[in-house]
Amino acid sequence: MKTSLLPAAAALLLAGTGCGSRSAAPAPEPIRLIVETDMGNDIDDALAFDLIYKAMDDGRVDLLAIGNHKLSPTATDYIDILNTWYGYPDIPLAQSPTPVLNDHAPDYTAAVCAMTREDGSPAFARSKTPEQIEDPVTLYRRTLAAQPDRSVTVLSLGFATELAKLLDSPADDISPLTGRELVARKVKTLSIMAGSYGEKQRAEFNVVNDIPAMRKLFAEWDTPIVQNPFELGKQVMYPGAVIENDFGWAKLHPVVEGYKNYHKMPYDRASWDLLSVVYLLHPEYFTESEPGTVAVDDKGFTNFSPGPDGRHRWLTATPEQLTRLRDCIVRTTTRAPKHTEL
């Protein structure tokens, strides 16, 4: 899909403003965020993290913890590179002890982690030793227990592997609450990229790779869930030409290098995970369904049943909203971060 780029003058005019206009209104309290990702399966995770870091730069997000569940020796290392490069090296980071294998796509994280400078030193700095990488369920329990009630937003950008384990976790020395009880008490909402509701409905990638976990998540997660389905991301294509032309301000950029190593350039890529991030910051850019309940069947299809007592909603967008979403994403990702040496 070919997409037009933002005019250069408009991009300069809007630089630094994020996705919204400047306002004299008081800034909202930062979103207390936990992110679960399958970094390395698709480049949209890396681009989504760019949006998160920029929101942190703007004081909109407090990133409490990151968990990764891709089976890869470099995926979590790559997240550490991102945290370090964007200026947030102290974010707690976890790797699943039972990661999920999916080998249908090139793992761009391996290529970026192997990059070196002319002197043979690593191209990108890291901040954590292997001993500092935690177990996701332990990290999530500790993080939730320390937060005020109904204050945490959870963002799921991959399979539901570790979030399902969190629900099953028993009371322990971290908290007398079970995982399900902790979620019900501490979490405000879950924003998730998963499922499909198009005319040609599919068993979507994030669901079908761990069906039991996703089924448990929708059945037992006792807070509102906002679902960003496959079809929406396909309507907002990230332009490969932006990667080629609009990051000249960075000598070496870990997301740009990841994008270049994921597929042969130039290519446009769907904004699946990115939209789940944008929803947290700008829900007005989307159209929400009526409330209802999502069930996951044995083949990995998601089925939505409307009902006033349901905790689930799924997202669509009007043509005008789609244009706004795409412009928002391009403006934000091409903006230089505040806390890195370029």
UniProtKB/TrEMBL annotation:
<protein>
    <submittedName>
        <fullName>Nucleoside hydrolase</fullName>
    </submittedName>
</protein>
<dbReference type="GO" id="GO:0016799">
    <property type="term" value="F:hydrolase activity, hydrolyzing N-glycosyl compounds"/>
</dbReference>
<keyword id="KW-0732">Signal</keyword>
<dbReference type="InterPro" id="IPR001910">
    <property type="entry name" value="Inosine/uridine_hydrolase_dom"/>
</dbReference>
<keyword id="KW-0378">Hydrolase</keyword>
<feature type="signal peptide">
    <location>
        <begin position="1"/>
        <end position="24"/>
    </location>
</feature>
<dbReference type="InterPro" id="IPR036452">
    <property type="entry name" value="Ribo_hydro-like"/>
</dbReference>
<feature type="domain" description="Inosine/uridine-preferring nucleoside hydrolase">
    <location>
        <begin position="33"/>
        <end position="300"/>
    </location>
</feature>
<dbReference type="Pfam" id="PF01156">
    <property type="entry name" value="IU_nuc_hydro"/>
</dbReference>
